[in-house]
Specification:
With 626 residues, the protein is an alpha+beta fold. It has helices at residues 2-21, 31-37, 39-44, 53-62, 88-107, 116-141, 148-160, 164-169, 176-195, 199-215, 224-228, 236-246, 248-261, 263-273, 293-298, 304-307, 312-317, 321-324, 329-343, 364-378, 382-407, 418-424, 432-440, 451-456, and strands at 74-75, 81-82, 463-472, 482-483, 493-496, 500-507, 519-527, 542-548, 554-561, 583-590, 600-606, 613-625. The longest helix has 26 residues, at 116-141.
Amino acid sequence: MKTKYLIGIITAVYLFAFLHFGFWKGAQFGGDSWGYYVHLPSTFLYQDVGDYTECSEAWRVYNPRANDPQSYLYTSSIEKRVVKYPVGVAIMETPFFFVAHVFCLITGVATDGFSWPYMFFVGISSLFYAIWGIWLLLLALKPYFNNETTRLWTGLTIGLATNLFYFSTYTVGMSHPYLFFLYALMLLGIVRFYEQPSMKRAIWVGASAGMISLTRSPEVICVLIPLLWGLNKWADFPKRGKFILDNYGKIGLAMLAFLLMLVPQALYWKFVSGHWWFNGYQGEQFDWENPHILDGIFHYRNGWLIYTPVMAFSLLGIFWLRKYATDARLAILCFLPLHWYIIYSWWCWNYINGFGSRPMVEVSALLAFPLAAFLEVVCQKKWSRILGAVLLAFFIWLNLFQTWQFSKGLLLTENTNPAYYKAIFGKSKPDDASAIAYSSNETQPELLRSGWKKWLHDDQDSLVRVAILATNDMEDSTGVLFTRELKKSGAFSFRCDEEYSPGCFLELPDPIPVEAGDYLRISISCYVKAKELTHKHEKLALLIVHIFDAQNNLILFKQLAASNRIYNESGSFKFTGKPDVWGEASYFVRVPQKLKPSDRIKTYLWNPSRQAIYVDDMAVELWRYQ
């Protein structure tokens, strides 16, 4: 009964979030979501599979300023366009697509495949499969964990403290909630099959694994899980061989079910390319020699444990699997490292267009077993139960709050750095410090220390300027880019619209009169004309500071988007500057501890996108706590 209450609570939270975020109101299926979904309207409404012109035009009615999705399609040797995304998600979305279509026919809403009912019903399928997957997972855990509290805590953790929530309520239509459901379905089938083998359960396991592979090709390694499940010691291997011989018919049926699930994709490839197998990811590849496993797990750019830290408990729980769920131990120990190796060898290892590491969403179903083992240990004593409940509440709050931050544009996890994460943590509004941190990856110091920092440094609590190290007032009238048209002070400013501008450059004298732990304050005055203002943050000119050693090795590199600081009253990192007014761009950079007198400091304006910007009064100052 308590399980039903848990599922009810998670459903209510998911549904509230789905309605609150309301992506479907603007019919904004795009990117990967469009690629998975487009198989449905192109097949059932426009019959333009292999061309997608009519389907794309219908989508652009709701997204007129977006890039033409056809530009992302590859043209095969038989002159047909190929959608690189597999058809598995579309198959699972199909019932919801037809519900939406019938709704549109009854209500008179446009039956074009992209009006709001299609977006609503197909979008809610992500939520539906995620919740169903949690329920199946709780059933799979039951034979190993008799303590209902352990199972409930596990379900609550997976449902509300991981990025499954994000992909089921905000950025819906991606493959990951569907894969989570399929993994949970397969795991339950595996548990039931080894309890009592039957034809039905064999088909269950094989078809589930086949659908997983159909939905996302690298997940084909999921077949390791049923093969290794229940192998706990060397003596189990000959027993497994005998089990296979005794049940060869059922095993063969599972293999057949697996292969049958792959037929729709093979038929699609044959139709659009003339081949039964086709690589739709042209120009995208795995770098098997340089996997980014540690980055994928710990990096602030969508690192798994940075944005789903609660799953660290699942890794700890592997140590207790032998005691509580030994059947899962070898499968997890073999599957998880291989999965990491594959997904983090992909060229885009940080998996953009999402919150946290997307390919780890589905794996949370398998990791629920060691997570439950860890929680079983936690639940054994009162003090640990209390501590565990507090930590779980914190991680649920963190996940829900950071999902909300993402929805408001405060947290762009695919491009976050440690300084920005720290600056925006727990905040509902951005500020200057967070905007500077996003661009520079440099935590800005307090001018007057407070709290524990003041207590720790009670004799050095005020940051003050102690010297002006170098200045450039842009008064070189002989340079062709120095202009009288606009200036902050004096007679000239410098118009910078090239990548590198010799006029916007400072090199500090040698030896450097600074000490490790000091701060450099780099500043420059900026002006952007309204007619030349860009609205793309990534195209802004950057105020750079470099520190090199005597051998010209780079010690420190920092950058600041200059025009972002021109009257940035919102504190947003996306702001590109207030036009037709002078403003100062400045930031503090902490001098590294290993700085030597022979090291060199340079600052300059780097403008790779050639933003048209006027600059004046460049300076480098030395600041120190006193």
